[in-house]
Specification:
alpha/beta
Length: 306
């Protein structure tokens, strides 16, 4: 046991039943190892010492039922102080505490609490109130536990909201990542399709050029096999054929006009007109000449037969 740098008597010598009195021992630190070896010491008095803080392993003394830390210089309690779940009586009078750890809410068996003469946070000081008698100290224990439980619940909700926000942010990042990957896949797919289409156009262009070249080569080969134009027989001029057709058309037109005139002069009242009289006379003369020509042909044919 440390005492201002020296060692004092054994803790067992100070043990009286289940009470261990280490007050007024000028302690700078708590002998946790020795205390852990005395599980029967459920009542521990560390008042009136020079303790500035409690070691983290102090909270392993879960057998403690009553603890007196009054009149020290404690500035804070360990964060896991709530592990002392069997603690029923706690005296923190005249220290330098401003706040209590959130784990304080886990001291579900705490029935008595004294926080007087500490520079407490105003809200905590108002909740704790005075501890001038047994009733007030018991009320302080109940109210402080309720207050710390509320703080713990709020912190739990904040952690839950933070965790939920982180999850949503993670989901959002994952969704954005998936969207980005999908966009990249679509871009690669489009680029691949464009590249394929470009290669197809190049292939079609090359094929068309090859076919055009083959046609040109075949044409040149055919032209090379044909005889020279000077050895070809002369072709009859086409304009003569066209001229003969034109003459035939004119003759047919004249014949048609003659027939129409003759019909008009023979069948209509125009036959008394001078022109029609001349036309009819000419027609009769031509007809008589043809008949005489036919008679002459018959006579000549008969003479030849004789």
């Amino acid at each position: 046991m440390s005492r201002g740098g020296g060692k004092g008597p054994s803790l067992k010598d100070k043990l009286d039943g289940n009470e261990l009195d280490l007050s007024l021992c000028d302690l700078n630190e708590v002998p946790v190892r020795e205390l852990a070896a005395l599980p029967k010491a459920t009542i521990l008095d560390l008042s009136c010492n020079n303790l500035i803080s409690l070691p983290s392993d102090f909270c392993s003394l879960m057998h403690l039922v009553k603890l007196d830390l009054s009149k020290n210089r404690l500035q804070q309690l360990p964060l896991d102080f709530g592990r002392l779940v069997n603690l029923q009586h706690l005296d923190l009078l005249n220290n330098r505490l401003v706040t209590l750890p959130v784990s304080f809410a886990q001291l579900k068996n705490l029935k008595w609490l004294d926080l007087k003469d500490n520079p407490l946070d105003p809200v905590l000081a108002k909740v704790a109130g005075d501890c001038l008698d047994e009733k007030q100290c018991k009320q302080a224990a109940v109210k402080v536990l309720q207050h710390m439980k509320a703080i713990q619940s709020e912190q739990d909700r904040q952690r839950q909201r933070k965790l939920q926000a982180e999850r949503e942010m993670e989901k959002k990042r994952e969704a954005e990542q998936r969207a980005k990957e999908a966009q990249e896949r679509e871009l690669r797919k489009r680029e691949k399709a464009e590249e394929k289409e470009r290669r197809r156009r190049e292939y079609d262009a090359q094929k068309a050029a090859k076919q055009e070249m083959e046609k040109k080569t075949k044409k040149e080969a055919v032209q090379a096999r044909k005889p020279a134009s000077s050895s070809r027989p002369p072709q009859p001029p086409r304009h003569k054929h066209s001229w003969s057709r034109s003459v035939l058309r004119v003759l047919l037109f004249v014949l048609l006009c003659v027939l129409c005139t003759l019909a008009a002069c023979k069948l209509t009242e125009l036959q008394r007109q001078p022109l029609c009289v001349s036309v009819n006379t000419l027609y009769e003369d031509v007809l008589a000449a043809l008949q005489n020509h036919k008679t002459l042909q018959n006579m000549l044919q008969q003479n030849s037969q004789q």
